[in-house]
Amino acid sequence: MLLKRMLLLGAASVFTVGSAYASSHREAPAITETPKIDGTDLYMFRSYEPGREDYVTFISNYQPIQAPYGGPNYFTMDPEALYEIHIDTDGDAVEDLTFQFDFDNNLVNGTGVTVNVGGEDVPIALRAAGPISASDQSGLGEVESYDVYVVRGDRRTGERQYAGTFGKPFDNTGTKTIPDYASYAASFVETLNIPGCDAPGRVFAGQREEAFAVNLGGIFDLLNYVPVDGASFPGGIMQDRANDDLVGEANITSLAIEVPISCLEDDGDNIIGAWMTSSLPQAQIEDPSPTYEEPSAIGGAFVQQSRLSNPLVNELVIGLNQKDLFNASEPTGDSQFATFVTNPTLSTLIDILFRDDVNAGLGTNHATIAPTNFPRTDLVAAFLTGVETLNQPANVTPAEMQRLNFAVAPTPRDQQSTFGVAGGDLAGFPNGRRPGDDAVDLALRAVMGRFCHPVDINGTPTDLGLCSPEDAPVGTEPFTDGAPISASELKNEFPYLNDPLPGATN
Predict the structure, then answer these.
(1) In whole angstroms, what is the distance from residue 266 CA to residue 42 CA?
(2) Are 253 and 271 in contact (CB under 8 A)?
(3) Which residue, among 197, 245, 232, has the nearest Cα to 479 in the 3D structure?
(4) Coil vs helix vs strand at 185
(5) N or C: which end of the chain has fewer CB within 10 A?
(6) Which helix or strand (DSSP H or E) is residue 446 part of?
(7) 22 has a pLDDT exceeding 70
(8) pLDDT tens per residue across span 352-407
(9) Other CB atoms closer than 10 Å to residue 291's CB: what's the count?
(10) Phi-psi group of 81: left, alpha or beta (phi > 0 → left; psi -120 to 50 → alpha; rest → beta)
């Protein structure tokens, strides 16, 4: 529950967490120490489940690269942490509405499942003795639940209201323990009565299959492939599921919430911004005699450990020396990181590594294939302000967050372009982000200047007015990591991401 706090006032100054952790698929140095609060992806989109068009869905993912067979403890959430989704309704880079998730883990009967051994009831070593179903969960020895709170105004000092307590399904250990995981998990999709809203939403927290398609090994081995689609470019990488290191290989934990649009309107422009964070208490003292309930003593104010909004920003944009600082900061302080966006290093690295390959494939002799418009106003629009006339609030404060114009109608799942706005689909990235938007390809194409060229909007080439084609000589080339994803591979209903991969099959 919300911090079984011990007020360690004397020890806090000694044992204060000294440096901020980071977020997003282990992309910064310190987060490797606390994977339970490692935020990996944020999705924000107008709901496209049929009949739910009057809602916006937010999905925040944590605990990266979960091996489906990762027992025996699997992937519980941290009961001492506070997981949050922040929403800015008026463009000033300050949260106006925050949804907080606060987890609690409890052993059944204080021990978990027991068996009689020689006349003694002895707790077993496993979290479940199964089988488990939506109607019978008596085989569970540890139960996870979470409280949802709604905060209006400042996340720490604003008006905080309780919205309900809900259960979290046990992770997908395998088909013998949970024969019908889809039905079991679906029973945890709950109605959420949001204080101050005139209509209910829905909420779900639980394990899902990873939907972030990425050639992870190749990317971080200095792009160990020519990053242009081989279907149209000689020597480029071909699209192949075998290139994907996460989809079909790993699970994730999703905190999903569906909010009525009527609860999100504020200044009348239909544009909101959002980001996700996780926080821990400021001080922790390890207990030499830990118990299940109190493995360590904690106390003090919450300190932000993880922050994420647009995909791949801290992984591929923020410099190594400031990754941890970025994740400790709030959007109002993002001016200190502006140079990483206005003068990005990734396009220069791609130029250094692949200029000769791209020139050879195109039969050109560009002196550089990296965009030359500085400052990179196209990236400022994509990552910091939103695109004018699409999702940029009036009098916007530049800050790293996703921005969504929910006046744009949702595109049905099977008609979505995996490339969002760059593919002529205004309901996709960078107008929010959907699970089927190919984040890696979009990031590569954005940084190489795709938005300096006209995009096809309803069959009409449209100049976004951010820069000129001459600034990005190869901006229309299909840059890619070769790991495809599309919305048609995912669910067409809340919580949208597929059921998690089982640890074993029978």
Answers:
(1) 22
(2) no
(3) 232
(4) helix
(5) C
(6) helix 439-447
(7) no
(8) 999 999 999 999 999 999 999 999 999 999 999 999 989 999 999 999 999 999 99
(9) 7
(10) beta
**How many Å apart are CA 360 and CA 370, to the nearest integer?**
16
Which tokens in the block code for residue 169? 């399904």
Report pLDDT digits (tens) over 495-506. 999 999 999 997
Separation between Cα atoms, residue 247 and residue 501, nearest integer Å: 10
Q: What is the 3-state secondary structure (H, E, C) of 149-171?
A: EEEECCCCCCEEEEEEEEEECCC
Residue 420, classified by CB atoms within 10 Å of its CB into exposed (0-12), middle (13-18) or buried (19+), is buried
pLDDT for position 14: 32
Question: 32's torsion region: left (phi>0), alpha (psi -120 to 50) or beta?
Answer: alpha
d(CA 406, CA 153): 21
Both tokens of residue 197? 């809203």
Query: What does the DSSP assignment read for 328-379?
Result: HS-GGGGGGGHHHHHS-SHHHHHHHHHHHHHHHHHT---S-SS---SS-HHH
Q: Which of 443, 393, 383, 442 is nearest to 416 (CA)?
A: 442
Of all helices (H) and strands (E), which one includes residue 205?
strand 201-209
Q: Which of 73, 85, 299 is nearest to 203 (CA)?
A: 85
Q: Which helix (H) or strand (E) holds 303?
A: strand 296-308
Per-residue pLDDT of 210-245, as tens digits, reads: 999 999 888 888 889 999 999 999 999 999 999 999
Place of tokens 């609690």: 104
State in Å, rounded, how far the first CA of the chain is from the last one. 36
On average, the pLDDT of the chain sits at 91
- Residue 342 is which amino acid? T
Q: Rounded CA gap, 172 and 186, in Å?
A: 13
